[in-house]
Structure formats: structure tokens, C-alpha cells
Design brief:
The protein is built from eight helices and seven strands. With 345 residues, the chain is of the alpha/beta class. The protein has a domain of 112 residues: Collagenase (Catalytic Domain) (3-Layer(aba) Sandwich). The strands form two sheets. It has a five-stranded mixed beta sheet. Helix 5 links the parallel strand 1 and strand 2. Helix 5 packs across helix 6 and helix 7 packs antiparallel against helix 8. This is Metalloendopeptidase. Its cofactor is Zn(2+).
Length: 345
């Protein structure tokens, strides 16, 4: 009987379909969809939104309607101008590393409003993921370390994709637009998180563990900290030092649209660095109004980052035990300003 049971199990194993792997062709299809969405949005807004057109740097002669299919890649010229910039900036997407055409500003929040976008939060608290085989082993281990940190510091569970789950992250070294970038919240289906591997210029998205953590937190539904409505009370924007076409990346969100009630966090892993979109890569574009304060750290989640993610996903309300557990983890493991250092260039 044991032999028959073993044979039956073996036959089931052989007959069962192996989980489908993600291929470069799959990623290319997703990237074409992304590029097409940018072309469509560009064509729609080219006459009535010059700031949006300049930010994409794909405009043609004024007043001429160019069929979307004939527009050059909206990422080509951006890649040339931002090649030496921080890898969270170099992709040239909205605010540097946010993919997809932006929602209207009135809907922007610290995190996506679950009342307005109920499907954009990973409501089961489980996030399947695939790491590209194109990464070297040490890069794959680096990404897995970032995922382990999020798994430990929050109640969200990142699990390897089983080939069947409909919604999952595809962590991939995208070549165009190259850089560290992500979508905001769950899109549905396969969803790219781009982490550019090291090259001769720099370590790119692998300069510090906070780089992949930052992009994955975007995928969980969070925006940049410095986009908060109250940021002018905490940082000063030096507009003359910003590449003109990217001034719109420093816009603020509406005051009524802050989802989570936490103080402004200079130390947030979601905060811009001081020289993001700098006109000469050296001049600061943003400075904190508080002395001895570092912005742009990528050592990991700050104390408040940890609380925000846990609050947004209900980790603090599951039970008194879990509230104590994750509150303690945030306090003990979250990066504080006196421990922060800037991990970019």
C-alpha cells in the first residue's frame, strides 16, 4: 500500500503543471503597456498641461497632433538628461520613481485612500513576488534581505509567487526606463518593481537596503513624504536649483487628503534626498528647516515609516498582543535621525 501511495503521489507530481515562471517577454509586454499609457496621457494633455508635457520631455512642435504610435519613447530624452542622477530620479517618472499616469492631485495622500481605491491595497495582507533570474546571486540576496525586513517589521507577508496567485510583484532589472521605480499600490495582475543593478557608474538601486525597501513600500500604496501638505513647515524647496522641467515633482498634496495621522518625518525612507533633480547634481534642491537633520536616508524604515505601514494595513488593531509586538518592533528597529545617513549621490 505504501508503494502504491508513493507511486500515486509521484504520478500526481509528474502530471501536475509546474508553476509558470515570469519571462523577459512578460516584462516587455508590461513595459509596452506602461509606455503606451504615457504616450496616451501625453497626447491627451499636451495642449492644456505644459508642465506635464515638459516633465515627460516627449513634446513635439507646438500645436501639432502626433499620433501616439509615432511618438518617440517618452523615456529616451529623460534617460539622457538624468543619467548621472540618483537612481530613484533617473527613470524620469512622476516624482522620479512613481510609474503610471498620476491621479488628480486632489486624490493624493500619504497613502492611497482605501475608500476611494479599495482594490489598490493588498487587502489580504499577503504580497506574492518574483525576483528576476537576471540578477546576480548577491543582488538576489540583497533584495531578499529587504523583503525579510518588511516581513519582520510589519504583519504583511511577502511570499514567493506560486505561479497561481493573480496579483503579484515582479522585481526586475528594467533597462528602459532604467532606475529604481514602482507603481503606487496594487494594480492587479503582474506588477513591476524596477531595481537597476550596479554598473560602472554606481551601485544604483543596491547602494543601501533602503532603496528596495522604498520601492516596495510604494507598491504597498505609499507616496513620498515630502509631498505632504505640511512639508513647507519642515523643509525649504530651492526652486532655482531644480531642473526646470521637473519642478512639478515638488508639488504638495491637498491638506484634506492625508490618510494617516502621523507627524512629518524627515527620517522617512520615503523622503527625497537633498539634491534630487538638482540642476548641476551638486546644489541642494531641498533643505530641512531643523538643524542637524538628514533627509534622504536609505538605511531602512524609520520609526514612523514602520508605524504608518502597520497602521495602514491594520497590524496595530488585530489584537493587544500584535499592537504591542509591532509597536515595539517599530521603536526598536526603526531608523532615527541620529542614526541616519544619506545613501545616494
Amino acid at each position: 500500500m505504501a508503494v502504491l501511495a508513493l507511486l500515486g503521489a509521484l504520478l500526481l507530481l509528474l502530471a501536475g503543471a509546474r508553476p509558470r515562471s515570469v519571462t523577459q517577454e512578460d516584462v516587455d509586454r508590461l513595459l509596452r503597456d506602461l509606455e503606451d499609457s504615457y504616450r496616451t496621457q501625453l497626447e491627451k494633455d499636451r495642449h492644456n498641461s505644459p508642465d506635464f508635457r515638459n516633465a515627460l520631455s516627449a513634446s513635439n512642435d507646438e500645436g501639432l497632433r502626433v499620433p501616439a504610435g509615432e511618438l518617440e519613447s517618452p523615456f529616451d530624452r529623460l534617460a539622457e538628461e538624468l543619467e548621472d542622477a540618483d537612481s530613484e530620479v533617473s527613470a524620469g517618472l512622476y516624482e522620479g520613481d512613481i510609474a503610471g499616469a498620476p491621479f488628480q492631485l486632489s486624490q493624493f495622500r500619504v497613502a492611497l485612500n482605501p475608500d476611494e481605491f479599495p482594490t489598490r491595497r493588498w487587502d489580504t495582507g499577503v504580497v506574492p513576488y518574483v525576483i528576476s533570474p537576471k540578477y546576480k546571486m548577491k543582488e538576489k540576496l540583497f533584495i531578499e534581505d529587504a523583503i525579510r525586513i518588511l516581513n519582520f517589521m510589519t504583519c504583511i507577508k511577502f511570499v514567493p509567487w506560486d505561479g497561481e496567485a493573480k496579483d503579484y510583484l515582479v522585481i526586475w532589472p528594467v533597462k528602459k526606463p532604467a532606475g529604481c521605480w514602482s507603481f503606487i499600490g496594487k494594480l492587479g495582475g503582474a506588477q513591476i518593481v524596477s531595481l537597476q543593478p550596479p554598473d560602472k557608474r554606481s551601485k544604483r538601486c543596491f547602494v543601501a537596503i533602503g532603496k528596495p525597501v522604498h520601492e516596495i513600500i510604494h507598491a504597498l500604496g505609499f507616496f513620498h513624504e515630502q509631498s505632504r501638505f505640511d512639508r513647507d513647515q519642515h523643509v525649504f524647496i530651492i526652486k532655482k536649483n531644480i531642473i526646470p522641467r521637473f519642478l512639478n515633482n515638488f508639488e504638495k498634496h491637498a491638506a484634506v487628503n492625508t490618510t494617516i495621522e502621523y507627524a512629518y518625518d524627515h527620517t522617512s525612507v520615503m523622503h527625497y534626498g537633498a539634491k534630487f533633480f538638482s540642476i548641476d547634481r551638486r546644489s541642494p534642491t531641498m533643505v530641512p528647516l531643523r538643524n542637524n537633520t538628514i533627509i534622504g536616508q536609505r538605511n531602512g524604515m524609520s520609526v514612523l515609516d514602520c508605524f504608518k505601514v502597520n497602521s495602514y494595513y491594520g497590524c496595530l488593531n488585530r489584537s493587544p498582543y500584535e499592537r504591542l509586538k509591532y509597536s515595539s518592533i517599530c521603536q526598536l528597529m526603526g531608523v532615527r535621525n541620529n542614526e541616519a545617513s544619506f545613501n545616494g549621490f
